[in-house]
Design brief:
By secondary structure, the chain is of the alpha/beta class. About 30% of the residues lie in helices and about 30% in strands. The longest helix has 17 residues. It is globular, with a radius of gyration of 18 Å.
């Protein structure tokens, strides 16, 4: 949901642009089911007759588990962005979901220290704001040296409320406020919402 909110806000801010979802876990049908769970993401879908489809402003690229090199993956993304340029489509945001799957796709990614940095630089060069989601790993100094801003989330296990704690780490010249913030999970009309 955090990643989908990132893409949705990009389309709300720049309706004439395109957003890109690079998924290593969910295929297009799964992504569509997730989006339909959250009414606030309706900009990412469109109604066609009785069917609900992904919006033409959202492009998804699903890479099922397979053994491929970092160079091959970067080439896929580079070719995708060139195709957007050929069709005169501007991509404003890219969501990469999720980093923890890379080790399942190829054990060699652990040795490719510059892969994520190269991907970020590629997006920056094309003026695309990118968000990378990593699920289930511990905070590490290695990952902090790659990203400009890192948002850490975890569940509050010391409280009975369904609460998510958020911490922000910023590597820029002036660090972000590191005081933990929290979001309570609220149920509205049967939908889980953060």
């Amino acid at each position: 949901p955090v990643g989908l909110a990132f893409l949705t806000s990009g389309l709300n801010a720049h309706p004439d642009t395109h957003v890109l979802l690079i998924s290593l876990r969910e295929d297009e049908a799964s992504i569509l089911r997730i989006i339909q769970t959250y009414p606030q993401f309706r900009i990412l879908v469109r109604q066609q007759g009785t069917s609900v489809l992904l919006s033409p402003c959202l492009s998804t690229f699903y890479f099922p588990p397979d053994y491929f090199t970092a160079e091959r993956f970067l080439n896929w993304i580079r070719q995708t962005l060139k195709e957007f340029q050929r069709t005169k489509k501007t991509v404003s945001r890219a969501l990469f979901s999720n980093l923890s799957q890379l080790s399942y796709n190829s054990p060699m990614f652990e040795q490719e220290r510059l892969f994520i940095a190269a991907l970020i630089e590629l997006f920056k060069k094309e003026h695309i704001t990118s968000l990378f989601i990593d699920v289930g790993t511990k905070k590490g100094t290695e990952i902090q040296n790659i990203f400009d801003t890192i948002i850490f989330t975890y569940r509050d296990t010391h409280n009975d409320a369904d609460r998510v704690i958020i911490e922000v780490s910023h590597s820029g010249p002036c660090n972000a406020d590191r005081t933990p913030k929290w979001l309570d999970r609220i149920t509205e009309n049967g939908y889980g919402r953060l």
